[in-house]
Amino acid sequence: MSSVSRKKYDVFLSFRGEDTRNNFTDHLYDALKRSGIVTFRDDPKLDAGEEIPPQLFRAIQQSWCSVIVCSRTYAFSSWCLEELAEIVKQRNEKGHKVFPIFYDVDPSDLRKHKEKFEEAFAKHEERYKEDKEKILRWRNALTQVANIKGWHLNNRHESGFIADIVRKISAKLCQTYPVFHDELVGISSRLEELYSKIEIGEDDIRIIGISGMGGIGKTTLARVVYDQMSSHFEGKCFIADVREVSDKFGLVSLQKQLLFQILSGEGFEFFNVHEGNAILSHRLSHKKVLVVIDDVDNLQHLKCLVGRHDWFGLGSRIIITTRDEHLLRSYQVDDVYISTTLSPEDAFQLFNLKAFGSEIVAEDDLMKLSKHVVRYAGGLPLALEVLGSFFCGRDAAQWRSAIQRLEQDSNKEILDRLRISFDGLEETEKNIFLDIACFFNGDEKDFVIKVLDGCEFFPDIGIDVLIKKSLLTVNENNKLWMHNLLQEMGRKIVREKSFEEPGKRCRLWEQKDVYHVLNNNTATNVIEGMIIDNKRESNKMLNLNVDVVSKMKKLRLLKVLCLTNCDELKYLPNELRLLDWMGYPLRFLPPSFQPDNLVALLLPYSRIEQLWKGNTPLYKLKVLNLKGSENLIKTPDFTTAPNLETLILEGCIRIVHVHPSIGVLSRLKLLNLRSCKSLRNLPTKIGIESLETLILKDCRNLVSLPSSIGGCKCLKTLDLSGCYKVENLPENLQQVELLEELDLSETAIAKPPSFIFELKNLKVLSLNRLKGPSTKLAPNLPSLFQAFQRGRMESVPLMLHSLSGLSSLTELKLRNCNLHDGDIPSDISCLSSLEKLELGGNNFSSVPASITLLSRLQYLGLSNCREIKSFPKHLINPPKVRRMDCSRFNVLHCYRMVENTNVLTMLYKRLKVVAHLRTCLEAVMPGSEILKWFSHQTVGSSIKIHLSNNIRNDSRWIGVIFCCIFVNDDASREEELACEVVIHHRNSGQAGSNGSGFSGINPRRVRSGSWSFSKDCNQPIIKDHFFYCYFSRDRLYPFSLKDKCGESETGNSSTLDCSNQEFDELQFSTTSDDCHRSVKVKKCGIRLVYQKDLEDINEDSAGEGSIAANGSLIKRKRDVYEEMDAGPQPKRIGKFFNFMKGLQGKKH
């Protein structure tokens, strides 16, 4: 972090001399001086002059903040008002901080210019009749200051009031003082969050913890805070390396250090921690101190160095750094800051500073190599600094050699630091750590717990310990994630067991080691886990024969992710807990295999025909996955696997029946039978009370569900989509009261039973129908009967019951249901929780007005609703009562609607509804031209704009809107379109390598929601379409500039000097995860949106608002869209439908 440029003065005092110069202001000035705060106060000799002298303007400009003493006659002084106007100008343009003091006045009187202030301005208006602009400037300045949160005297004692003001100004100032740590990249945001927890300036005593993995920068962060804040405490002490020092010299030495540093060299003689505790609690209890206790690793450290809150005086702050979050939580500290790794941009900058001495890399070759090293370091500051220093001054050839060595053997200095945490673990926790490092990094937490529980490692508590010790994290998808350097450290520990012979190691995962062991027959009974994977050298065939496997008696974990030569495999170790074999090539499991200990059997895409014969004991089995095993002819008898929780038979296309013993699986939670195309029925007794998820998607021959389904009391998800022959649901399904997701899409259910609409807990209801030839079915067209069924269903509108009973519903999907005007019940407005409504492909001529009462609706899909003649006015400008704040609209292929809609007016009105929400406003619709209203336009998919620092102080600016014109010429592929904003910050004096002035430091990224087209429509978007998204200022800048600069009384300052920042560069671009994207963006545009843009909204002023300005897009003759819109089947199949219907009529 660069040092902060200093001002000449800390504080500029603005006051009315005759009111407060010789009393309140004089006392305030004296108190600020005593606190070491450099304060400017005008010379009383200057009062006689008429015009404000230029040195006062310079003093304001050279001050960090202004303190304005708003007294009763303040506004009578034209001099004071000129000062005030200049202060407000500096605030708006340079980020100058302002702190008003309301001295015996009410801020509302200032805002409304009442009482004395009204009288004062009456005199000024009389005096300056010819200069109305000056009066207006003064009024605006006074109003702005009145709106800033300040300090009120409120009959308090002035001495205490002044002390409080000085303390708070001092606290804000100390966070801006220069910190000469030029290489502390990315620290500003971290300090900002940490300061919000420390809450300096308050009178309470706070103990704050900083937790994180080794090398992540905990000590560095604590040191910066200590340097910045220590001058504002009566005593201070930084005790470094507590873990190491206490081990060598004992805790008494650290207690003495604490007393010595805080009490200015006073010596104490005591010889045990109990005496030390007594002295600390007595001598420091009335002293305001700042103490940092660094690298704590056990509770005794805290008991002897921190004790209780009352060991220290009011206003004290104690900061503790540790790798063990649980230690902090168990000690009940006031708050914990969790350190995180650096962003990719910050990591790259830090590495470059260490490797090249600057943020810029001159050589392209070294740039590529730098990215490789930065990726390896994974954002860990320790690794970036060590590796950057190592590579400094070396040429490209040496870089390549060193990088290759890193891949084989990681840097010792880094791993030794990381290993400290591992060495403090219990034996079972070490085993869990090593298993995750070698086999399970990135796997689902619940699955790993099942497997490790079968190994008797007590993973519920063990994994929690690893998380609290910052050795492991769980991401938002409930997957375990271990930093790659921690993973490498764990793997190195395993290698150290036997450097020369991998067969003597407990875990094998590297291809070369596994190849060596299998082909040279060097396996031993030490091996507990193995991954067999030759994807890097697929030409090498690995031999997995009985001689090799029989030596691995203790093998617990076996993953086979490739084809192997195992024709002679007649043995598997009976100690196996996990057998994960992708594409298992044999018809049966070895007959000698006794899977008594097996917890998870994963044989996806195998050639297996039958799992086991007879009563094979599988009492520990919890997960069985046979996905895509097309040769499996029947499911096993589940009687001997009573603890099974997950059963996946997806894609087992030869299974006709499921063994009736499935009904005894009292712990089964997930049953996935998706795409079991031959499955005709389910066992009559399938009322498994524990079952939570039942997936029957695309079971095309399934005719019905058994009535026992009502016994699945815990069922939350039921997916019947694509079950074309299912015409009814059993009545007792209504007993499944906990059901949350129900998908009946593309079934033969024309009229869903009424009880569905009474399920109080239902959150997602899908009743979509298929329309048009499905691209996913193109290679394997359905039978004529299925085609007939589909055609018959499309001709019958979906019959909907009252929707008022679905009180928890968040998503309702009714795509291609042949719905007309009036088919949607009016009580849809009762769905108070509804967030997503899909109505695409229906035959409305207008959208029901009741939709506008869906106050939580975020997405409305109307794609392919070609009968709608114009965008509904009640959607553009919904009523204020229970207003729908829908932020995403999909009107793909709705040409008639857009032709008759003034899009600019629609934009204005929608913006007015959602402008100040921290959400995106987005839509896709037909359109070939970008409106002229978008002031910045360019060809291509990316556009840049400079945003001045001043604009963030301008309350009239509300956000930015982006748009583009695009097509999608390939509907067969899953394709996404989204907008990403990259915000590059520029400070004065900085310049990037390209001379643009932007060095790429700490860019922020903000992304819109993504639009997936092939899911919503199975036809290409050949004609131009228009996509727009709006970003509010709060979304682009989640924290206001006031907060960052410490202006509000309770706001938390950061080390950022806002006056030094000139402007940001905002780069808007469309994004896609696919490098061969079929979505092609032709041009794009942006506009800064101000409040004024939304004030004068009328139809006439937006005359150029039609997107389809050239008429050719909407007003067209019969074309490919109309051909496709006629129906999903060719004309001959249509005639076949008519013929079949005629036959049905004759039968009846």
From TrEMBL:
Reactions this protein catalyses: NAD(+) + H2O = ADP-D-ribose + nicotinamide + H(+)
InterPro entries attached to this UniProt entry: Apaf_helical (IPR042197), C-JID (IPR045344), Disease_R_plants (IPR044974), Leu-rich_rpt (IPR001611), LRR_dom_sf (IPR032675), NB-ARC (IPR002182), P-loop_NTPase (IPR027417), TIR_dom (IPR000157)
PROSITE patterns (alphabetical): LRR, TIR
Enzyme class: hydrolase
Span of domain TIR: 7-173
Pfam family membership, one: TIR
Gene3D superfamilies (UniProt xref): Helical domain of apoptotic protease-activating factors, P-loop containing nucleotide triphosphate hydrolases, Ribonuclease Inhibitor, Toll/interleukin-1 receptor homology (TIR) domain
UniProt GO BP: defense response; signal transduction
Any one GO molecular-function label of the UniProt entry: NAD+ nucleosidase activity, cyclic ADP-ribose generating
Keywords: Hydrolase, Leucine-rich repeat, NAD, Repeat
Enzyme Commission code(s) on record: 3.2.2.6
Origin superkingdom: Eukaryota
Name of the featured protein: ADP-ribosyl cyclase/cyclic ADP-ribose hydrolase
Species: Hibiscus trionum
